Every structure is written in structure tokens, then in C-alpha cells.
Amino acid sequence: MRQNLFGQLSTEDFLQNYWQKKPLVIRGAFPDFEMPFSAEELAGLACDTDVPARIIMEKGLPPENQPWQVKNSPLSENDFLTLPDSHCTFVVNDLERYIPELGNLIEPFRFIPDWRIDDLMVSYAEDKGSVGPHTDEYDVFLIQGAGRRRWQIITRDDYPKDLIPDLPIAILKEFEADEEWLLEPGDMLYLPPNIPHYGIAEGQCFTFSVGFRAPRTVDLLQNWLETLSQNKALEQRFSDAERKPQENPGEITAPDLAALSQQMFSAIDQQKSNINIFLGKHLTETRGDLPQIEPDSSIQSYHKDSDYERETWLRFAYIEEDNRLHFFADGQHLEFSLDYKEAIQELCEDYFYPAGSLEKLIQNSAFLTLFNTFLANESITPAID
Question: Please, which residues bridge with residue 156 across strands?
Fold first, then answer.
């Protein structure tokens, strides 16, 4: 059973009364929280891999001494040796890709569908460290690891929205909080989109955050239209075989506008049946660069006697439509009959696959090829006893 994060508050009550509506502090959401790494180990990860990371310094460093300096990855050991003792923060995104066992922090949030979950981020801050007062356009759960952080928020809608100009990050120019909490290890703060918030470390501290995807309409449309541009059926050109003489050549007449509009909308209407397939592929596609891994040639094919594990960042999803199942994995699409429904549901729900549990799916040659691809790039691996 999935962990209930909200104490006496049920998951259903949380979704009905708080999700995308108002903030919530949950004390002891992760009891007995233990840090999986030290600050030095986290810095080593940033220096030794291509993990997306950045250092944010509120007071800046000489010679510029500009406030809110940002240093983006790749980072070096010297970047950390020259950091001040306060007012600085080190942030790492996509942490679950580089430390797979931290996927356990994401598992309790899977009452929200997988396609909505973005990544696990961690910030390490020296005393007074922060990323400044700001807003996010997505939901976020902030889990306090080691140390303590004071969170301040603004709940009113008429707060000043101007940003400090000419900064590499978006920071509110004015911030007057009307609520605040001090989070201890294991506590959690939920924030809906666009709530101004400001988290300041009290001493050294770690804060983990689970963020959520919120696709913009313009991005969805652009990506969908990009797929349509590859469709030969849409290469039809404008035709006006019944053209009449026109008095003024500069006018775009109402009949021409109507014909051009009809040509566009008719083409889109013809492609609407493909939009669900586009969304399934788009929403499961892994974003950003993956960890650079040398594939192990000894595990690049499925063995029925092996247990397997899927990395939490590898998204699986399915759509049931017209008595067929459409399965999506990392932007790939396979179609199955409804006979495979239970097998597909278990595949998407689980991250651990005991020996033999995939036998039905493996009989599908396209699925076997896809599964072996995931074995080769180590997004699925043989389970270690």
C-alpha cells in the first residue's frame, strides 16, 4: 500500500481541498528521515557527472560582487572551494536519474499520474541560503531533509509582481509574507502553482522537492503541429478553380479567407484521431539528457529467469481506446489487444518485475525489442538480490 503523506487527512481530502487550491504543511510526512548523502558527496556528483546543477549566491563573489550570481553546471571542485559560508545554495535537478534509489521519495506521490510528475530536486544551503522569493508555475512538494528551513509565503492575489531586473533568475522585487513555517527534518510543505514563496536555511540544510509537469498549451500545440508537418496528407495545396475576376488585386476577399481557413481546419479535423497517440508519446518522453552510461553487453537481452527493475524516471503509460490498448514508453508507442490489459496495467504500476511476470508481453516481438533497448541503455536492469 502506498504511504499516506497527509496524516489524518486522506488523499481524497487533500485532492479535493488543497491540490491546486491552497498550501498545506504536513508535520512528519516522512518520519525518521535519513539523508542518503552528504554535502560533499552531492558536490562530487556535480563534479563527476553531467547532472543539471547550479550554485546560487545571494551576495555574489568578487570581483563583480553582484547579488544573486548563478553558476550553472558543469561545476568543478574549485567552484565549491570558493563558496561563502552563508547566503548560498547548491541545487541539483533530476536527482532520481543519478541516484536511482531516491525514486523511493517519488513513489508516495503516485496518486497523481506518472505523466504529471516531473523530477526530484535537492537543494543544499549554507546558513541563510535561499534561491530568493519567487513563484513557480507548477505544483511542488517540499520535503525537509537534514537541518531546518523557514518558509514564508504570500496568500493574497494582489501582491506586487515586479521582478528585480537584470538578474539570471526570477526574484520578486518586493515580498511581504503573511504566513510562515519552520520545517524540521521529515516535514513537508505543499504549494500550488503561482504561490509566492521564500525559503531561508537556518544553518546548513537539505530540502528535496517533487515537482510536477504542467504543459503549456502553446508547447503542446507546437509539438503536435510539428508531428503533423511530417504527414504527407497535409501537403495539399490551395485550389481556386472557380476563381472570378477581382476588381482590386490588393484585397484578400471573404471567400478566399473562408477557403483558406477551411483548408486549415479541415486538415486539422482529419488528424484529430491521432492526437491521443501524440499525447501518449509526448507525455512519456524523457526530457533532457540522460546519464551517460556504458551499456553492459552481458545484459542486453531478456532472460525469463531474471528479475528486473525499472528506473523511476522511465515513464510507462497506456490508453484504452476503441477496444485496443495503446502502450507508451519513453515516447515509443505499441498497440495491443485488450487481452493484454492486465499485463500492461501491472507493467505501468510496478517498478519491479519478478522472473516470469513479463512472459505474456515478451511474446510480442515489438515489445521484446523495446524491452531489450531499455536493458541496453540501463533504464531497466536485472534486479540485484
Answer: none
What's the length of the chain? 385
User: Based on the number of CB atoms within 10 Å of its own CB, is 118 exposed (0-12), middle (13-18) or buried (19 or more)?
Assistant: buried
Reported as a single tens digit per residue, the pLDDT across 185-243 is 999 999 999 999 999 999 999 999 999 999 999 999 888 888 877 777 678 889 998 88
Query: What pLDDT digit, counting tens, does each position of 21-72 carry?
Result: 999 999 999 998 889 999 999 999 999 888 999 999 998 666 666 789 999 9
Please indicate, yes or no, whether the overall pTM of this predicted structure exceeds 0.90: no
Class of domain 11-212: mainly beta
Cβ distance 167 to 68 under 8 Å? yes
Domain boundaries, the chain: 11-212, 282-382
Burial (CB count <10 Å: 0-12, 13-18, 19+), residue 117: buried
- Using CA atoms, how far residue 44 sits from 34, 37, 89, 91, 245, in Å, is 19, 11, 15, 13, 74
CA distance 361 to 293: 26
Name the CATH code of domain 282-382 (choices 2.60.40.2660, 3.50.50.60, 3.30.1540.10, 3.40.366.30).
3.40.366.30
- DSSP-assigned letters across all residues of 79-147: HHHT--SBSEEEEE--HHHHSGGGGGGTGGGTTS-GGGEEEEEEEEE-BT----SB--SS-EEEEE-SS
Of 214, 255, 6, 203, the C-alpha closest to 87 is 203
Cα diameter, the chain: 83
Q: φ and ψ at 189, to 5 degrees?
A: -120, 125
Total Cβ atoms within 10 A of residue 248: 6
Alpha carbon separation from 143 to 66, 112, 122 (Å, rounded): 30, 17, 9
d(CA 50, CA 48): 7
